[in-house]
Write a structure and sequence with these properties.
With 340 residues, this protein is of the alpha+beta class. It folds into 2 domains: 186 residues, no CATH class; 136 residues, Reverse transcriptase/Diguanylate cyclase domain (Alpha-Beta Plaits), CATH 3.30.70. It is 65% helix and 11% strand. It contains 12 helices and 6 strands. The strands form 2 sheets. It has a 4-stranded antiparallel beta sheet with strand order 2-3-1-6, sandwiched between helices. The chain starts with a helix and ends in a 7-residue tail after the last helix. The C terminus is likely disordered.
Length: 340
């Protein structure tokens, strides 16, 4: 009797531990995509898709093989996210050192620009030159705070006497920021969805003439998206956009054919006749309309749905990107009537 009781107690303990492991694995499947750096949104989307897939069998009564497979995917994705985040941190620290170097160079340009401030600026230039040689990011950030405050006081005093010189300094900083923004846009990737951005879409539209004929352009948008953002918040709106991007990825080639045009507008380029592309658009519209989303309202989880609009046109010869977009937008606004 005692032996049977012990076995039952052991079984209960094993069952409790098993459930705890399952709960941990499911929690990791949900948490991992959020740990991906915003600098690599594509990785976050890929992680979410793969982890959702391995989580499905864990929600029932999983086999040992399913648990092992899920663990393997989680470990692999963890390492990918760690490596990606490490790269993002290194790039950030490199950019910070570059800004320090730029500040040192800019301050050098003001040397001798006034007896009252020349000495202070020379000292600050020397300090920033020293900072640009520090390799420890933590030490660099700590010392940068103090020296930046000194620089701010010196520049403020100098501006009172030499407004022209201050404007030139501000212009240099603005140009540097514009170069940084230009470098970000040069990647051609929309940060939220991982799809091509509008500039890449315009390039693809200009290149339609080199594609095999016939070719169609499809334009999608989410019904009342701005109101959804106001009612439920930007994070929920972002979730709708990412869900639509994943759905479009399953039906179009994301490389060179699928783009986020602006806001909630997504543009796709597809080979085929108008009627075939209309059928494809309606299928995507139907699938998205049946999707269920959840938002928190007043502390309560609420089930929601979102509807999708689309328009489709067949491309003609020698059309500009603006002409193609305007025709696709008109087709969408007329609820799928063909616009020629």
């Amino acid at each position: 009797m005692i032996s049977i009781r012990r076995e039952m107690e052991n079984d209960e303990r094993c069952e409790t531990r098993f459930r705890a492991v399952l709960k941990t694995l499911l929690g990791l499947c949900e948490l991992m995509p959020r740990l991906a750096s915003p600098a690599n949104p594509k990785l976050g989307v890929e992680c979410e898709e793969s982890l959702q897939e391995v989580a499905k069998p864990l929600k029932e009564t999983p086999t040992t093989g399913a648990i092992a497979a899920a663990s393997e995917v989680i470990l692999r994705r963890t390492e990918e996210i760690r490596a990606s985040n490490q790269i993002a941190i290194e790039e950030r620290d490199t950019a910070m050192k570059s800004v320090v170097g730029l500040a040192a160079t800019a301050i050098q340009g003001f040397r001798g620009s006034g007896e009252r401030h020349g000495s202070n600026l020379e000292k600050l230039a020397d300090r920033f030159e020293i900072l640009s040689g520090i390799n420890d990011p933590a030490e660099l950030r700590r010392r940068l705070v103090a020296d930046t405050n000194r620089l701010r006081l010196a520049v403020t005093a100098m501006c009172e006497e030499q407004e022209k010189a201050a404007r030139e300094f501000e212009a240099e900083v603005e140009q540097f920021q514009q170069r940084l923004e230009g470098a970000r846009k040069d990647t051609g990737v929309d940060r939220l969805t991982g799809l091509g951005n509008r500039r890449e879409a315009e390039k693809a539209l200009r290149a339609i003439g080199s594609r095999p004929r016939p070719t169609c352009v499809l334009l999608f948008d989410i019904v009342d998206f701005r109101k959804i953002n106001v009612d439920h918040g930007a994070l929920f709106g972002d979730h709708l956009l990412q869900t639509l991007a994943r759905l479009l990825r399953t039906n179009f080639d994301p490389q060179g054919s699928l783009f986020r045009w602006s806001g909630d507008e997504f543009l796709a380029i597809a080979a085929g006749r108008l009627d075939a592309c209309q059928i494809l658009g309606r299928q995507i519209q139907s699938v998205y309309g049946r999707s269920e989303f959840f938002a928190v309202r007043g502390g309560i989880k609420v089930k929601l749905k979102a509807d999708l609009n689309f328009g489709v046109i067949e491309c003609e010869s020698n059309e500009s990107p603006d002409q193609l977009y305007r025709r696709a937008r008109a087709a969408l606004d007329q609820r799928f009537e063909v616009v020629w």
